[in-house]
Design brief:
Largest interface: A-B, 87 and 87 residues
CATH architecture of the largest domain in chain A: 3-Layer(aba) Sandwich
Radius of gyration of chain A: 21 Å
Strand order of the largest sheet of chain A: 2-8-7-6-5-3-4
Largest sheet of chain A: 7 strands, mixed
CATH topology of the largest domain in chain A: Aspartate Aminotransferase, domain 2
Order of helices and strands of chain A: HHEHHEHEHEHEHEEEHHHEHEEEH
Oligomer: homodimer
Structural class of chain A: alpha/beta
Number of helices of chain A: 13
Distance between the termini of chain A: 52 Å
Number of domains of chain A: 2
Number of strands of chain A: 12
Strand content of chain A: 5-15%
Shape of chain A: globular
């Protein structure tokens, strides 16, 4: 018996998260007494709505039971009302409630892709798209986008050139994690037409749909004809600052897809029940919470842009949506720089943690001078964090 | 573009749950005013521990944030203390906290199996093993067991005969869902030796470990040498009547396996946080709750056996563990009988819902006269439910 052979290809090769892999250095820095501003991970500090936390409670004597595999019926109804209220045409039969947007994505990729099938996504991309693709046996093909263009969506000809007989879907995140780009209506319309022309599904990760600071939120379902090809990945995590609830959904009018993911969902029995109870609370009157949170992120966005503009050699595109910004720094290697920030740098006992760029690229050598900044802190700590970045760039021995 | 081609092999072929597929008939019967005793699904009526529900609460002002991908550190520590306390040698590095036992199983199968690889499991089996295997691209090969033998584990020679060059693991559920069989120490020892001899991993689903009414709970880790090959699937769902918490774990001393599933876990970010908070409460002093719950299920088991013994033509093996019993009924087709119970039968406005046997078999034609009974009701309703089954068997036109 060989002790090195128990793992599958997926088991051997699924990558560790590039966002989380610097954690050991961060823990060591914290143990040395350094205060770390976490701009590396999309965990906002916004308190979860009180209505969520109150509704999530079960009194003693209750049974914390499975929900239906497709989600609690009142919660599904509340989702329909929510989407209808924001102008998205969604019916109950279009929805599967999932354990976070993560499970939604894995189920959709598994439902669409056989081993060796391909999915096209713009690069840089959310790294877990790669891991979920591998878990589904699919290959992620990336289309380069450029920081100089604000990472705007490639033209249809670029997508068309990447399509092969194995291509099953195009995968977009709008607004984009990690770039902060909001795709234009025209660009989305062109991708919808392309998907329809080539018989591809269009998976749209819209978990940051409301987080828009330039223009208005834009669901793929508002593009005429998109319903034939669109599969939306959505989540309560960011919209209601409830990342730990693990509550998302899949939306599609292609009911054979909903039927397939529902059969996957039956196997895992139930999404988290406490999260759904809380979600019922959050959806009772979602507008005020979401508006005030977006206003808060808009101020943070402004602070970020204002402070980054003061740093020589830094190229920051306009942060249009989500709460991330892919930013170019004058450094030899963002991997080395981000590790150096934790290992070797501090200013008045403080440092800042960023996510190195290469983890968001599949193309070797790309993103070496980029970092993803998650502006998930309040104005004062965010300003301080970016100023710390400025001090660090001055002190960094590998500055370009 | 073909509208019939968007689904993968998995998407097309993953089966609907045989336990849940009669739900539409049940809903119609309920709408006609029939009271249904649910013996079809493993959702007990035991109140969740108050300590769980209290600890799961977050006060307003808190952020319901992601936990670490591997689980909250205090919860992992509490799990280690729990396992140590019941005599299982488990260290923190042996554990990955998962979103229910379901995710644990999917991750393990994905980490071990490439497309076309095989996993051996005794039949009848928990149907979701088949769905998860398909999602992982693996083939489930089943070894027949017999109701006349109390579904005891097949001898090693039978396992050996089923092993092919593609076999990666043996999968056991002990005590067994759906049969209620508790595997003996000798039988487990033989399977461990076989797994080691053939370089296979041994996946043990122990979510019902405490639910034992004949003998004592027996973890695979108590078999000498098992740690080299054992991968335990565990869950809080049944042990703390918290199915909706969606909280499980993977335990193995094969750290390359834990490393692989941890990388999968990073992609899905976090198990449910509220469930883990509750789990911390449940693990503070688990003994009294579990003991009293097992005592309750032992009474139910006795009621079940006592009432089934009164029904002519019914073959019920000894219910040794879990809270299921695969039972032979004198009917032409358990599929038809279970549907008839919901569509055509009622006694004083009441009927009983059971899970038809064939869904627990892969071998065509098997289980046609068997049903799975989940004895998840209190003594009085359980007695009434089995008596209803007796009335139904007398009235059923397809009685053998």
């Amino acid at each position: 018996m060989s002790t090195s052979s128990i793992l599958s290809y997926r088991g051997k090769n699924a990558p560790a998260s590039p966002i989380r892999k610097l954690e050991p250095l961060a823990r060591a820095a914290a143990e040395r007494g350094t205060k770390i501003y976490h701009l590396n991970i999309g965990q906002p500090d916004i308190p979860t709505p009180a209505s969520f936390l109150q509704k999530a409670r079960l009194e003693p004597g209750n049974v914390l039971s499975y929900s239906p595999s497709v989600g609690l019926y009142p919660y599904r109804k509340a989702l329909v009302d929510y989407y209808t209220g924001i102008g998205m045409p969604v019916a109950e039969r279009d929805i599967l409630v999932t354990t976070g947007g993560s499970e939604a994505l894995l189920f959709v990729l598994m439902a669409l892709c056989d081993p060796g099938d391909e999915v096209i996504t713009p690069e840089p991309y959310y790294p877990n798209y790669g891991t979920f693709s591998m878990m589904a046996g699919a290959t992620l093909r990336t289309l380069p986008t450029r920081i100089e263009d604000g990472f705007r969506l490639p033209p249809p000809a670029d997508f068309a050139a990447a399509i092969t007989p194995r291509t099953r879907a195009i995968l977009l995140c709008n607004p984009s994690n990690p770039t902060g780009t909001l795709y234009s209506r025209d660009a989305l319309t062109a991708v919808v037409a392309l998907a329809k022309q080539h018989g591809l599904m269009l998976i749209c990760d819209e978990v940051y749909r409301d987080f828009v600071y330039a223009g208005t939120p834009l669901s793929i379902l508002s593009i005429p004809g998109a319903a034939d090809v669109a599969i939306i990945i959505d989540s309560l995590s960011k919209r209601f600052s409830a990342c730990g609830a693990r509550l998302g959904c899949i939306i599609s009018q292609r009911h054979e897809l909903i039927d397939a993911v529902t059969r996957f969902a039956m196997a895992r029995l139930s999404p988290p029940t406490l999260g759904q109870l809380g979600g019922l609370g959050a959806l009772e009157d979602p507008g005020p919470f979401v508006s005030s949170m977006i206003a808060e992120f808009r101020r943070r966005r402004d602070v970020l842009m204002e402070e980054l503009a003061k740093l020589p050699g830094v190229l920051a595109p306009e942060a249009q949506g989500a709460f991330y910004l892919m930013t170019r720094l004058p450094v030899d290697s963002s991997e080395r720089f981000c590790a150096w920030l934790l290992n070797d740098f501090s200013h008045q006992g403080e440092t800042v943690m960023l996510a190195p760029g290469p983890g968001f690229y599949q193309t070797p050598g790309s993103g070496q001078d980029e970092v993803r900044i998650a502006y998930v802190l309040g104005e004062a700590p965010l300003r301080r964090a970016v100023q710390l970045l400025g001090h660090a760039l001055q002190a960094y021995p590998g500055r370009k």
